Amino acid sequence: MASGRGERWPRPAPGGRGGRGGTQMGEWESVFLRSLALPPHGQRARARPPGSTAFRCVLKSLEGAALAQPFPAVSGGTSLSPPPRRALQGAEYQLRLSLFDATYRHFFGRTWRSGRRAARAAPPRLARAAFNETVYFHTSLNHPSITAVVEVVATAGKGDGDSRHLSCGFGLIPLFGGGSEATGPATEDRALKLYHGTPRALLHPRFQDPLEKNKYLTVMEKSHLQYSLKPHPPLETIFHLLPENLLMSGLQTVPGLLPARGDAGDCLQKPRLMKPVTCYLERLSVRLYPSLEEFEEELLDLVNGDRLLQANAAPDGAGMEVRERRLHVGVHNGLCFVQAPQVAVLLPEARGSCPGVPGSGARGAGQVLVLRSRIHLSEMVPHPAFGVCFQLEYVFRSAGRAGGKALPGSARAEVADMRSVRWAVWSPGAGEADVVLPLRGGARRGPCQTLVYRTPPSSRSSRQGKHVESGTVQFHVSTESEEHLVTAAEILRKDRDEPEEPPTPSLSPTAPPPAAASPRGPGLSVSQLRGQTPVRRGPGSRQDGGITHLEAALGSPEPGAGDQLQALPFAPLQVPIAAVGLQAGSSRTPLSRASLARLHAAGFPEILDRNQEPVQISEPAEPASFSLRLEEADPLQGNEIILQFLAFGRDARDSVEGTWPRTIFLTFQFYRFPPVTTPRLQLVSTAGELSAGPAVPAQLLVRVNKDGTLDTGPPGLQLKYLVDPTFLRAGEQRWFLRYLAEHSLQIDIWDGDSLLLVGSAALKLQPLLRQGRAAVRTHHELEVATTEYEPDVTVMGREALRPGALRPLGVRVVVRGRLHLCLANVGHPCEEAPGQPPSPMPSRSRPVPAPDGAGSVAAGSWFSLNAAGGGRVSRARRLVEVDGELAAALRSRRPETRPPPPAAPGEATAACRRKLRRMALVRQQEEAGGGRTPQLSGCREQRGWHTRDLQIIDAYREHTKGESISRMLSQAITATRTVRAVLGTAEFFEFALKNPYSIQHTVTIEVDHPELSVILDPREWRHFKELTQSVTPVEEEMFHLRDDLKPQVYLRPNETVHIPFKYQTFSADPAVVAAQGPAGLGAGPEAAACSLGKSGTGRTKHIQVSFQVSRGKPIALLRVKVEPQPHVVDQTFRFYHPELTFLKKTIRLPPWHTLPGAPVGMPGGEPEMFVRCSDPDIICETKNMGPGEPQDIFLKVAGGPSPQIKKFFVAIYTDAWLAAPVQIWQFYLHSLQRLDVSCTAGQLARLSLLLRGTPAPRRVRAFTSHPQELEVDPDGAFLLPANGIQDLYIGVRPRRAGSRFIYLNLVDVESHQLVSSWLLCLSCRQPLISKAFEISMPAGGGRGCNKRITYTNPYPSPRLYFLGTNRPDLLQFKEDSFEVAGGEVYTIGLRFAPSQGTGEEEILIHINDHEDKNEETFCVKVLYQ
Questions:
Q1: What is the pTM of this model?
Q2: Are 1179 and 1195 in contact (CB under 8 A)?
Q3: What element of type H or E holds 1320?
Q4: Which of 794, 804, 831, 1185 maximizes the CB count within 10 A of its CB?
């Protein structure tokens, strides 16, 4: 059984920090060793539920026979008579509490011990010992067999000064009931019966569950323990500081908690956390003894030997190799890790001797493990028991046989083996310095609870200091801004009752900048970080959000203040990509009249107005001619929006060797309607091909049926949207008109066969404004472009230190084709919705009145009609119609009547005659015998049933009378408010709260949903009132916050006040988050042809607000009905990233005045922007870089498994109170399986992929985004067997050097579903150039020119060579291959194509052998003049 001590831990003294060559971690190690606990049984650990339950157990007093246990005779004396059974003179008693699992007969945790108490006896009363000690703990093992065992131990002194211990009995406290529910709170104390013996007897196999009914347990008469046990929710706030199953007294010190207020001394009853301090660990390196090479060589030999020993095999020539070197870094408070440790990847690097390490200079230069990023620890607390734990872990894999051939790519079977090698703990102190820590290893207790590799023998460490025999870890520690890690004594000197500011944005220019909140997580960064001087901010600048650990602020250097060293922020690794949207609008070269005539002759369906007349095509109006008043005064307020997709053609600037789709489908979202995925559309060429440029045809779009045949109807695809003001919210009609005037519709075009993105197009919606006309129709030709994000570029040197050095780079837009479509808007009259006057704002603020004495009744319980006198006329209904429970009770009392089975049509008449004859015979026998008539018997039986029904109804009404009265009274004080919520938009309203009593009251406001909150800051309240133009007064310091953060308001007798509420959600509705695109195709366009009010709503939820006075008595109730509405998407970003990794991107925000919906003429110059993300698991931050500097958004997203698509939204605000977003961006993260390929430009690299079959066989085909550079085998459709494995062979021949991405999709050709996706990350080297040439050619067209070069076969035998180039659009060969004898010379004919512009191009000529390996490369520099 585990043992422990219950004495109060000493108050922590000011702790030191690890300096050069050592560390002071005595306080941490002392706390760690005192808190070691036994883990639960292995079976429990595997099936552990996620939640944990907190308990508070008070052990009060013990009395009875347990305090009269006799001690055995002490050696040296004789006694024939038994000692008296009374309280022992000089004996003290102690309670010990342990956790026990009765199912597996296993003690776990750590035994808690109370203080020693003496027993007091006052005859004739029994002896009694008072303890009054409180124990706190939490556990996730919510099983009925988990109990707490209390043991009573007597302690008496011996003659030699030692003490003797005797177990006087034990008791069992159940923690959970039969349904795995925590034991309910006890209103009074409980008496725990005690058993004879010691709790160690519970380990005997004969003690089976349940223990209370075991025959071997004997109850101790006239003895019990007074205790109380109840859940303790306040303990949930410190679960990160207190490990599970550890019993703690409130008098013990928990590192990270402030002492208790007043004289109570119980810091766990209402725990208060100490303020954390952020620190950074930079320039971290690990040095191993005697050198990294020797250490890893010995380690690999031992791991390989262990592998052979476990496999019971002889040496097979295979070995082990190091795959990764990881460093786990986390903050530990001596009890547990405060947060999950971060994981960083270390890389070997050549270094010199380690300063400060004895004897390191003798070794000379060697390799050390370095971390090329800094570690951000935001959970550090200034307490001497807090420490930073380091754990060095090696990941091994099998290296294959020595002479064997390695399998290519991901087809290679790898078995990862992870081993912990070293660990260390550092206790920080004040200031910044370089720290050198010795690493530990071997059989020592460590915080990571893992076996650690042994330390080197002492004989091998003769040259080294004893403290570095296992290696060292060296780093530089710094803290953010002006804060430093102070000691616990300095923290405790501060005022404990210092009020905290409410968590509302500060608008004061002199407010100090808050601490930058940086995310924690796996810092798997292997890129170089460089230092930089921090930014000096003026008094007007403020820092509202933190920056991720891969980004930093740029600015001018700040002079140092005194001797305090300032941290040097590092330069950002990623150059921000620009948030450049597609150029919305029509092409600069509109179609000619001949092309329009061909479109008209193609047979597209006509667009008719409300009079069934064709709508003529008109030219789009100028942007300045838009008039909002003209739109609002239009009598035709109904809008029928028609999108007609006509044709799609290739752009003249698109590369000729790129793939062109055979079928396409489109995805987009219009206004707040659901996202649309169109069916597949075939590209069909016509005899008179449409032409928007020189020799670039446009192909018609024809729908493809499910069986693969073309639709015989008219070509094109037509979608309709009905926008009727009767279904819009109050004032939303004006917002819809502004949406048409200012926004663009982004359309994504996908390849219908490969499910790869072809490109995107943006369409301005302003031509849909009719401006008083009955209908409008315009034709548009849109550029379809694809946005490629280049690999991240590192800013090197002093360029990164210059203010404003970063520019939006990394975005490359390539025009792929042109999309032809028609836009139309047909006006329709509509009736004005009754009781819905026009409003200038979509979220009009009006006070919600509290119900008066008339009350309100729940909908559905009355049929209400408006009477002439204004009263309410209701039709009474039967009780069984109103109450389903009563109806079920009445049905259960009556005999079950089963209908006769249906007879066949031919047997119905015969069966009826047979029953009639039988009934006649029965009546004759009853009349002859003088019995009762069946009619009279039936009537009495029916009367009896009615009597019983009335009794049931009467009993039921008596049973539910109280509940019904309570419900009716609640309905009388309940008001209802409907909120139509949009993502990111704050819905503001006020509730008129009246005190119905003639005395003053303090009202507590309780809200049962976090998205609805009371506005506490008067500045925020005033801001929303200005937006909504409400006239109710604003009071300063109106609310008082309780300890549980529930607001309270003081009301005078019969006083009425207005309570401001704000509902705001940042979580998107699941129906809206359904991903578009390549995961699958939609059902058809009919889903889009719907009305906004009927299909655009999400799931409704109800929120209850209670206004309570003393003792929880409600005086008013507010029920908020929330109806989620779809939101508008302004811009879409798509990122392709390897699966199960973090995507880290920096996006530069455009200038605020260019954003649609941004305020005009805002005082104070350029506003600060704020961002919020719809997914709480995504890190989304922004930071103001100073006046005149651009602003960036930092994203850190965790990718899922392939081919998962994660969709989320980012809302951008220009006001600090986040009232309404000016932009909502939509992000798609496509998770792909990553495959790294290292190759040479112009040379074929072969590898293979392993395909795993799904549960059903599929006919699949592989498609690639660059078919000219990536070859697949098989290249056509093939059968993928169910649950089988098949190889897909790949050949990569890149045309240019550098890093780039190639996408590979495996598609089911029958259902057009994506089966799997790969992201090929190419690292391409430039081949060695053996010869260089230079020619000049005229620019601007022409016939081109022919040239010749010679090549000599260097081999003595004949060879076959193949020719290739990186620019097939500018260079063509006379022959693609040639054969030349040994030592002979061959002349290669070249044909150079003309260029349209001036400049110079470097064209490479690759000469490869028969295996497609590069023999030589020539470079031809062409000058176009």
A1: 0.51
A2: yes
A3: strand 1313-1325
A4: 1185
